[in-house]
Design goal:
The complex is a heterodimer.
Chain A (H helix, E strand, L loop, with lengths): L3 E3 L4 E4 L4 E7 L4 E9 L6 E6 L4 E3 L2 E6 L4 E6 L8 E9 L6 E2 L3 E6 L1
Parallel strand pairs in A: 2-11
Antiparallel strand pairs in A: 1-3, 3-8, 4-5, 4-9, 6-7, 7-8, 9-10, 9-11
Chain B lengths: L3 E4 L2 E4 L5 E7 L5 E7 L6 E6 L6 E2 L10 E5 L2 E6 L8 E8 L6 E2 L3 E5 L1
Parallel strand pairs in B: 2-11
Antiparallel strand pairs in B: 1-3, 3-8, 4-5, 4-9, 5-6, 7-8, 9-10, 9-11
Classes of the chains: A mainly beta, B mainly beta.
Chain lengths: 110, 113
């Protein structure tokens, strides 16, 4: 079983919609979590870090639920430019090597 | 965050040949990594490039196939040796540190004919 699991989607939503992705992790030693965005045939780029207290950056909100071992990403007022693959990433304490989820594909249509 | 430059950005190669990918960082970094991402898949770590010593390879990857150099704290190379069509992939270098997110170079898109 993969340590970080995501629904690959695709999630097909209209512009302006609110969409949420969940990601579950199996390694309870994971301490740091991140969401990356990857456009087609481009490198992953850090979108935001995820904290237990929640983290909001404009239209994007990330949450960590340690009890249930999942991370969420909420995108409000979706834009066409939000279309991409969103990668969930976990990092264990003291480790330099993160575990990447397979990614969730988002398609925002007019 | 560090600026990471990879080259070449893409290449088309004949099977049986080898290609060396370069990764240059604009500042000294402790940890450098090489990943592979095959179409429709997530990132797979090939190895950790260690400065001044042999790279640490992940299960399924060996030095003979993917030799890595790390001569200093700002530069690393990955060679894909004796290439076959199965090696067609995006190869990415990244830098990172404990508890910190990794940052990636813009990748090398490799196609093997």
């Amino acid at each position: 079983r993969k340590e970080v699991e995501q629904d690959p989607g695709p999630f097909n939503v209209p512009e302006g919609a609110t969409v949420a992705f969940n990601c579950t992790y199996s390694n309870s030693a994971s301490q740091s979590f991140f969401w990356y965005r990857q456009d087609c045939r481009k490198e992953p780029k850090l979108l935001m870090s995820v904290y237990s207290s929640g983290n909001e950056d404009g239209r994007f909100t990330a949450q960590l639920n340690r009890a249930s071992q999942y991370i969420s990403l909420l995108i409000r007022d979706s834009k066409l430019s939000d279309s991409a693959t969103y990668l969930c990433v976990g990092l264990s304490g003291g480790s330099y090597i993160p575990t990447f989820g397979r990614g969730t594909s988002l398609i925002v249509h007019p | 965050s560090a600026v990471i430059s990879q080259k070449p950005s893409r290449d088309i190669c004949q099977r049986g040949t080898s290609l060396t990918i370069q990764c240059q960082v604009d500042s000294q970094v402790t940890m450098m990594f090489w990943y592979r991402q095959q179409p429709g898949q997530s990132l797979t770590l090939i190895a950790t490039a260690n400065q001044g010593s042999e790279a640490t390879y992940e299960s399924g990857f060996v030095i003979d196939k993917f030799p890595i150099s790390r001569p200093n704290l700002t530069f690393s190379t990955l060679t894909v040796s004796n290439m076959s069509p199965e090696d067609s992939s995006i190869y990415l270098c990244s830098v990172g540190d404990s508890h910190e997110p990794q940052h990636f170079g813009d990748g090398t898109r490799l196609s093997i004919l």
